[in-house]
Amino acid sequence: MPLISMRPMLKQARAGRYGIAAFNMIDYNSARAIVEGAAELEAPIIVQASVKTVKHWGYKPVASWVRLLAESVDVPVGLHLDHCTDLEVIKRCIDAGWTSVMFDGSALPFADNLAKSLQVYALTEQAGIGLEAEMGAIGGVEDDKIVKEGMAALANYDECVAFCKELPHLAVFAPAIGTAHGFYKGEPKIAYDLLESVAKKTGMPIALHGGTGLSQEQFDRCIAGGCAKVNISTMHKHCFIEGFISVQRENPKQSEPLPFIAHQYEAMKRDVKDMVRAFGSAGKATHAHAAAE
Ligand SMILES: [Zn+2]
Predict the structure, then answer these.
(1) Pick from 42, 113, 174, 252: most CB atoms within 10 A?
(2) Residue 232 C-alpha to ligand 1 middle, in angstroms?
(3) In this structure, what CATH number is given to the domain that contains residue 283?
(4) How far is the CA of 207 from the centre of ligand 1 (A)?
(5) What is the pLDDT of residue 263?
(6) DSSP-assigned states of every residue in the chain
(7) Is residue 144 in some structural domain?
(8) Ligand 1 (ion): which residues have CB within 5 A?
(9) Ligand 1 centroid, distance to 255 Cα (angstroms)
(10) 1 within some domain
(11) Confidence of residue 185 (pLDDT cuts 50, 70, 90)
(12) How do residues 16-29 score in pLDDT, each as one tens digit?
């Protein structure tokens, strides 16, 4: 089916209390593993790209790969731009066919984050696509953004409520709730109270960043608490590299590239399917598509 905006998908997911996986694609093989893995489980899926990835391949190639993959399956697929602070990049993604974008103004003071998010919102509304916005400081490394351990800060409840009041039609809201990008070194301390109170007060589907390494129980509690979009990047990168190089480890004489790519695809797809099952979105393709705009 054609690419669709994640906004109606996430609304349905929040109402149905399941999470839609949002994987950070790396190249065509990775995008294919994400889309086809979801299709095998009849699950809705979000393919997202970091700014770095988009700049590496170019806007049109990324958009056309994901569009063609979406058209070859029968499940709803959204193409999303992850953490972006640059309005020019956002505009170019909109022009190239992205169906949602994230404006990350979390490093800005509240008033500036709100003002810029409203500016991006006007652009996304005009284009008929979804917007994700962030508040607080999610720890870890994502793209070129580094938030050191001591600098990670939970979102402020009152600010979240005030922010969402001004932006009631966000596709998804990303308050920092204690999760972090990258592999966790210790046990993440998730602020479930904050998550639940923000989700309840605003009614907004919530994005869970830093999904790699969380336990099934943590996913369950976050999804029950209002998370509808679950981001996975680090584990997908790991499967991408490990799936490829392990071929040579096991068969040092292998000199044909296609077996590497095939093995890498299977490794990524296995992880995609594990996560889709963990978030409860297997079999939800029709449900998620029911409210498509
Ligand atoms: Zn993130």
Answers:
(1) 174
(2) 9
(3) 3.20.20.70
(4) 9
(5) 98
(6) -----HHHHHHHHHHHT--EEEEE--SHHHHHHHHHHHHHTT--EEEEE-HHHHHHH-HHHHHHHHHHHHHTSSS-EEEEEEEE--HHHHHHHHHHT-SEEEE--TTS-HHHHHHHHHHHHHHHHHHT-EEEEEESB-BEEETTEEE-GGG-BPPPHHHHHHHHHH-TT-SEEEE--S-BSS--SS-----HHHHHHHHHHH---EEE---TT--HHHHHHHHHTTEEEEEE-HHHHHHHHHHHHHHHHH-TT---HHHHHHHHHHHHHHHHHHHHHHTT-TT-HHHHHTT--
(7) yes
(8) 142, 209
(9) 37
(10) no
(11) confident
(12) 999 999 999 999 99
